[in-house]
């Protein structure tokens, strides 16, 4: 972010990596939206796109959503943009186009791209064991379940058959876990004890620990699967962020700012907010209207102990649209090239195949529908059919815990971004709703 001071410290990531005090660029960065076009100029209907606002306004009026910012680009031009409802319903603050959102797991694609930049630099290889950068992950144990005499599972630890690789982190086949998701009881307990999760208080929050503490604690817990054998959504990208730091010698926030946010003019994306930007931060309802559960979200007003590559990011719809358009363009935006089209092709290919099992498919986790495999940082659609939402083979996407969502459809040349602050069990419903409303507006 502009004029932010990064108070970097020694990175004792069990490697000999020292990150010296670094300041982020001090020159001002101004908001730079993509060019706009009338929808009809790029094969879409303005009248049909207007249904997005009609539907979302009803959901907001019914008290089901606090508010949202939505943006749609086709063929490199913004054809729809709207800020609807409330940035903070409790304070009666209206949503604004530049409202800032906790994007949680939509941080993962940003950090996955950062790792692939280092692959392009020749500093990392996908087949590298992560212990090359983080020695604590050498000689891992795997927690294996077996039925006990009473029918309940019993668990024993066995040595990992192979090392965790960088590719495993990128495609969630490392054997790492999320305490909130995994069914492996010993691993769940180890993660909760290590404070990777505080159920009912701060889910997906490990901002209070240093990078070194994060690595040490997660490496002590057993894995839930043998590396490279099973797709299970996890803290893998948090550890990928630590690999980026170890391999680059820079704090994750600094690396991303220098290599991605500054070149792409993503002016409001980072891991915490200065006081001057806090008034733009979107807030959820205190209680989720769908579940009746109290809502707790990350406190992003202070610098975190570590930059969470899996769940710690903040962004705006405009910033994330610029990121998405760069990917659709093959690694370049407005004359700034940040990566190669060949790398994006690799990232958006199927990396599970028949070698990595996926009992719960990525699309089922994200949208409640099959039809998606996983690449390197993105869910990837395998065919025009199967999935219970419109789209095209080869589209790629991801989403966040607080309801945010984006997708990129290279065939239709669409980038869609949906930003809200509504962690709720029904968030998949709104993702599918928005996606369907965009595709029904195609008229070419």
Protein model, in words:
With 444 residues, this protein is α+β, with helices and mostly antiparallel strands. 26% of the residues lie in helices and 16% in strands. The chain is built from 12 helices and 16 strands. It has helices spanning 46-49, 51-61, 107-120, 166-171, 185-193, 211-220, 236-248, 252-261, 317-328, 341-347, 362-367, 427-439, and strands at 5-6, 22-23, 67-74, 77-88, 93-94, 101-104, 141-147, 153-159, 313-315, 332-333, 336-337, 372-374, 379-381, 396-399, 405-409, 414-420. An 8-stranded antiparallel beta sheet has the order 5-4-3-16-15-14-13-12, sandwiched between helices. A hairpin with a 4-residue loop joins strand 15 (405-409) and strand 16 (414-420). Helix 3 (107-120) runs parallel beside helix 7. The radius of gyration is 21 Å and the shape is globular. The two termini are 39 Å apart.
Short description:
Strand 7 and strand 8 form a beta hairpin. Residues 1-28 have low confidence and may be disordered.
End-to-end separation in angstroms reads: 39 Å
Quickly give the structural class: alpha+beta
Give the biggest beta sheet.
Answer: 8 strands, antiparallel
Order of strands across the main sheet: 5-4-3-16-15-14-13-12
Shape descriptor = globular
Beta-strand percentage range: 15-25%
Record field, number of beta strands: 16
Instruction: Give the helix level as a range of percent.
Output: 25-40%
Q: Ranges with pLDDT <50 over ≥5 residues?
A: 1-28
Oligomer: single chain
Number of contiguous helices: 12
């Amino acid at each position: 972010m502009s004029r932010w001071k990064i108070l970097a410290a020694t990175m004792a990531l069990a490697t000999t990596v020292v990150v010296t005090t670094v300041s982020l660029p001090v020159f001002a960065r101004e908001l730079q939206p993509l060019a706009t076009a009338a929808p009809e100029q790029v094969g879409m209907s303005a009248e049909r796109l207007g249904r997005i606002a009609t539907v979302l306004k009803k959901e907001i009026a019914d008290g089901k959503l606090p508010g949202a910012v939505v943006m749609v680009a086709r063929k490199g031009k913004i054809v729809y943009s709207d800020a609807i409802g409330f940035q903070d319903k409790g304070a009666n603050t209206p949503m604004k186009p530049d409202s800032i959102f906790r994007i949680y797991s939509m941080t993962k694609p940003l950090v996955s791209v950062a790792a692939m930049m280092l692959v392009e630099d020749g500093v990392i290889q996908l087949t590298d064991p992560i212990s090359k950068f983080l020695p604590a992950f050498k000689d891992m144990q795997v927690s294996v379940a077996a039925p006990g005499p009473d029918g309940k599972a019993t668990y024993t630890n066995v040595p990992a058959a192979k090392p965790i690789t960088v590719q495993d982190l990128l495609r969630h086949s490392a054997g790492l876990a999320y305490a909130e998701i995994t069914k492996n009881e010993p691993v769940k307990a180890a993660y909760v004890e290590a404070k990777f999760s505080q159920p009912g208080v701060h889910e997906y929050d490990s901002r209070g620990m240093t990078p070194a503490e994060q690595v040490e604690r997660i490496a002590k817990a057993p894995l839930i699967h043998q590396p490279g054998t099973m797709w299970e959504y996890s803290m893998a990208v948090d550890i990928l962020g630590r690999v980026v730091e170890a391999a680059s010698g820079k704090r994750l926030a600094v690396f991303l700012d220098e290599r991605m946010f500054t070149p792409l003019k993503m002016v409001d994306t980072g891991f915490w907010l200065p006081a001057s930007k806090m008034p733009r931060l979107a807030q959820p309802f205190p209680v989720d209207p769908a579940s009746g559960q109290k809502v707790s979200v990350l406190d992003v007003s202070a610098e975190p102990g570590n930059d969470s590559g899996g769940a710690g990011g903040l962004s705006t719809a405009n910033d994330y649209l610029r990121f998405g358009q760069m990917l659709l363009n093959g690694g370049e935006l407005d004359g700034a090239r940040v990566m190669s089209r060949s790398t994006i092709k690799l990232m958006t290919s199927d990396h599970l195949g028949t070698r990595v099992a996926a009992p719960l498919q990525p699309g089922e986790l994200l949208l409640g529908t099959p039809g998606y495999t996983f690449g390197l940082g993105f869910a990837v659609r395998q065919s025009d059919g199967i999935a219970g939402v419109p789209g095209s083979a080869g589209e790629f996407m991801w989403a966040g815990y607080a309801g945010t969502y984006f997708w990129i459809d290279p065939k239709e040349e669409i980038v869609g971004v949906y930003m809200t602050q509504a962690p709720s069990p029904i968030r998949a419903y709104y993702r599918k709703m928005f996606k369907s409303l965009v595709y029904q507006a195609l008229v070419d």
